[in-house]
Amino acid sequence: MPGLPDVSREVRLVAVPAGLPTPADFAVVETPVPVPGEGELLVRNRFFHVFAALRTLIGGSVAGAPFPGLQPGDTLFGAAIGEVVAAAGDGGPRPGELVSHWLGWREYAVVPAAACSLLGDALPDPVAHLAQGRTAYGALTRGARVRPGDTVYVSGGAGSVGSMAGQIARLLGAGRVIGSTGSPEKADRMVSELGYDAVLIRGEDPVAEQLAKAAPDGIDVFFDNVGGEELRAAVAAARRDARFVLVGALSGQLSEGGTGTTAPVEFDSFQFLIKQVTMRGYSAQGDLGVQAEWLDRFAGWLRTGDVTFPYVRVDGIENAPRALHETLSGRHIGTVVVAP
């Protein structure tokens, strides 16, 4: 195909780590630029999402998960935004158009046209399509059903999902929004930039004690990215009829001694019974109706300035393994994206 380079770079797993992955567990390799077949698109990736759940896939994934585990030699994958450079067959996106797909972590990807979504101009910046607000919005409107005046607690409130969840909870009418994070510096930014009223700092006083001070009258909604100690604290702080919605398990995924595939936690189930707490897991992947609704709300909130999309951009695919290591280490606020 004229005008294209001969090779494309991609990131592959070279070894299953004993603990948290480091850049040495990956390699950036060159491969021939792939050629699309009938019904396929050749896409030049402009951005891809770096997400902590890759730790679970590197550890072998878990039964029932929507994505398979990764083995040494496999190319990593994840949400990506790219420009179509070639299309085989009629119909579907055409060269020059932007699409979203799931073959990130490479410069060029061949993707079935049916597996791509045409982006259009609904959002002012294409990278905003990598925002993880769809999960936060779906969990808060469908899972926990936030009500006006609710006190909402968001664990892992500085990450790609949590940085959106706090803002969305406020827009849905929450009266008080509390988050948690791992450092005072991130806590300060969460209050000043993301609309949190108070932020708990893991590793300082026990989370349960901090939450009791931040929400002396208890919590109505728990939006859980973490599990572990934070789930136990939320049970203790729950009001009667509190609603818990679980969207992540970072306590297991970021455990240095584990594989990232389990997240065990022990809590007092008597409190669930007495307080009549409800708890459910939520995944936007299984909620087909949420995408269009979220995109419409997100676009409107961005235009009015009611929501910001915090993200960190890392340039160069050769820096993607470092970006993953920094994400797993909790260095950044918001969504981490690589521009290959």
Could you describe the 3D structure shown?
The chain folds into two domains: 7-130 and 309-339, Medium-chain alcohol dehydrogenases, catalytic domain (Quinone Oxidoreductase, Chain A, domain 1, Alpha-Beta Complex); 133-285, Rossmann fold, CATH 3.40.50. Strand 9, helix 4 (184-193) and strand 10 (198-201) form a beta-alpha-beta unit. It is globular and about 65 Å long. The chain is an alpha/beta fold and 340 residues long. Helix content is 26%, strand content 26%. Helix 2 packs across helix 3, helix 2 (133-143) crosses helix 9 (290-304) and helix 5 (207-214) packs parallel to helix 6. It contains ten helices and 15 strands. It holds the Pfam family ADH_zinc_N. Residues 19-338 form the Enoyl reductase (ER) domain. Keywords: Oxidoreductase.
* CATH homologous superfamily descriptor of the largest domain: Medium-chain alcohol dehydrogenases, catalytic domain
Oligomer: single chain
Q: CATH topology of the largest domain, what is it called?
A: Quinone Oxidoreductase, Chain A, domain 1
Q: Which architecture of the largest domain does the CATH hierarchy give at level 2?
A: Alpha-Beta Complex
Topology:
Layout: E1 7-13, E2 26-32, E3 40-50, H1 54-58, E4 80-87, E5 98-101, E6 108-112, E7 117-118, H2 133-143, E8 151-154, H3 162-171, E9 176-181, H4 184-193, E10 198-201, H5 207-214, E11 219-224, H6 228-237, E12 238-246, H7 250-253, H8 269-275, E13 278-281, H9 290-304, E14 311-315, H10 320-328, E15 335-339
Parallel strand pairs: 8-9, 8-11, 9-10, 11-12, 12-13, 14-15
Antiparallel strand pairs: 1-2, 3-4, 3-6, 3-15, 4-5, 5-7
Domain Enoyl reductase (ER): 19-338
GO molecular function: oxidoreductase activity, acting on the CH-CH group of donors, NAD or NADP as acceptor
Pfam family, one: ADH_zinc_N
